[in-house]
Amino acid sequence: MENQPYLSVIIPAYNEEKRISKTLLAVDEYLQKQSFEYEILVVSDGSTDKTAQIITDFQKSIKSLKLVDNKANHGKGWVTRQGMLAALGQVRLFMDADNATTLDHFDKMKPYFEQGANVVIGSRDSKDAKGAKQAVSQPGLKRLLGNAGNILIQIFAVWGVWDTQCGFKAFSAQAAKDIFSKSKIDRWGFDIEALALARKLKYKIDIVPVYWINDPNSKVSMKGYLMTFKELFQVWWWLVTDAYKLRIKK
Q1: Which of 188, 173, 197 is nearest to 8 (CA)?
Q2: 236: domain range?
Q3: b vs e for 24-34, b when ≥16 Cβ sit within 10 Å of the residue's Cβ?
Q4: Average pLDDT along the chain
Q5: Distances in Å between the alpha carbon of 37 and those of 3, 7, 59, 116?
Q6: Which residues pair with 212 in a beta bridge?
Q7: Is residue 2 part of a domain?
Q8: Taking a C-beta distance cutoff of 8 angstroms, is the pair 120, 208 a contact?
Q9: What is the reported pLDDT for 246?
């Protein structure tokens, strides 16, 4: 495709008026230094604050910045899927609106894609990739739930990946189409589903270490954690019953 960008950066956002400006400036600073073409897609998930207006204002100064402004709230999984399928890049990466994992971590991913990789994810767990680190450890309860949840995630969906929930994942255009055109989870469990589908479609998952900066204003609630467990078993059941109707790669 002529003028197809090499990289699409998808940023799902819900009521991010306090954080999105800083994130966009950091993303723009990184991308301006690159030799490849790119696009930035911010997908607003029915934001009721000034998120959409801030993006619109930044379009005057940030190259290739696009806004998808949903008027209703659907969930992070829904808008990430929307962004992945609307993107044009040869590589499509989604990241968190709080910039917890900075875009310069893509420098570690790019060599994998240059060698033909299809799915490359960031991990905050050194068991996945040496050098992975969190700036500040999560609170004890979150850490306990995360560890317990990961055991279940590995058993029922994605064996061998210790950090399925890091919001920094990249896919080739073909992998993004194959995976996100089949995905069903609209909220927090979408990461698990994407990786489970990648495995089922026989895509190798490469992992790079990230330095993750925890935002104390994280929007993931206790209810969200519990819902993720429910969604895990939904994914497992859909895989077992072939609800995804997958056409498996030979």
Answers
A1: 173
A2: 7-240
A3: beebbebbeee
A4: 92
A5: 8, 7, 17, 19
A6: 134
A7: no
A8: yes
A9: 87
